[in-house]
């Protein structure tokens, strides 16, 4: 219980400046981001499928939704959050969580590494254009978060770093940037909020693209973060429950005037990896402590130097990065295509600051490279046999036939030189799609133009059924 309580406190302290910063990115009042972090964390602690994972206002959501705030105002913005939550519940019921199985491991590695880089880069502005006193404070904070766990794990090192650095800056009256400089903290509890928008088709057309984008980005980041926590804790989570839980949390957050959000990789790693939390209690308390800190103890929280939080987030970025993936020994052992997928995922995620784009491009790259690799595993062997004085050309096709491999199949036959009878033996192959059926039709049609007979044998049950259903009915591709 002590671990869970202290972890929740550390996460709450780390959430405050980030929630304010993300509110600024979205173009809304800091209170909207802070209230969202409270309602998201508390809601997901009950509804979520991954214990100890932290959900709150995030930069990914802020970037997606910011244009709507600028063009139509806060009411449309909050309505889009509620609609995104509804979309997430629907997607969960449709089984979107099962799509996670199609994300390759190297895309996951690229996702983790990109997040670590983005977490680090988000701290760089806090180190530019500031007084020199910030740098020794950050160095001291890093010394504490890296060194204290070697002496004791009784108290989370990030919490000790925050308390020590705050005490130093207050006692010594050091003029350094603090949490209070980020924006005004709320002085009251969140209340129910109903967006004042016209309920018509035009409004839906405005909200739909933003809500759908927010729903997909939020689910993608949450499900991939959940998978990462599964690996860190060696436990399983319910991805379908997490999906509809995210939707429910966003609906609740919207009706309390929050900006919505999703799982946060940085705060989750603080909770799970740095603080050792494992249950929903830490997630719930992170939200509760956040509200208490900003509403009741706002004056005290405002004194926390940003240097302390920068040190904690740098530690998180270093702990999150998969250093094994870039070791020379690993790179030499790993197939070049796998490394390429990881690097492309990292590059696009960092360049766009959009996890959905980075992961989407990574998965697409993996699919193309896999299809190209599998396409070369198909072989066609030709022999000419003689039966009762008649020559027969026999082709044995070996491998998985789909759009990438079957396109070259047409060129593997000697149409003009073959005898009158041709047998295509497909015992060691499987037909996967219409492209393959069309390729076989093209082969038999080509032989027919030469007045030759073709017999296709050895098709397994599924392949034979597909050919019977589609054979000769696909046209010439026009």
From TrEMBL:
Protein name: Sodium-independent anion transporter
Organism: Glutamicibacter ardleyensis
Annotated transmembrane regions: 31-47, 52-70, 76-95, 107-124, 130-148, 160-179, 199-220, 279-297, 303-321, 341-370
Location within or outside the cell: Membrane
PROSITE patterns (alphabetical): STAS (PS50801)
Domain STAS, first and last residues per copy: 397-470
Lineage of the organism: Bacteria, Bacillati, Actinomycetota, Actinomycetes, Micrococcales
Main location: membrane
Keyword Transmembrane applies: yes
Key words of the record: Membrane, Transmembrane, Transmembrane helix
UniProt keyword Transcription, yes or no: no
Domain of life: Bacteria
Pfam family of the protein (one): Sulfate_transp
Gene3D superfamilies in the record: STAS domain (3.30.750.24)
CDD domains associated with the record: STAS_SulP_like_sulfate_transporter (cd07042)
Membrane topology annotation: Multi-pass membrane protein
InterPro entries assigned: Membrane-Transporter-like, SLC26A/SulP_dom, STAS_dom, STAS_dom_sf
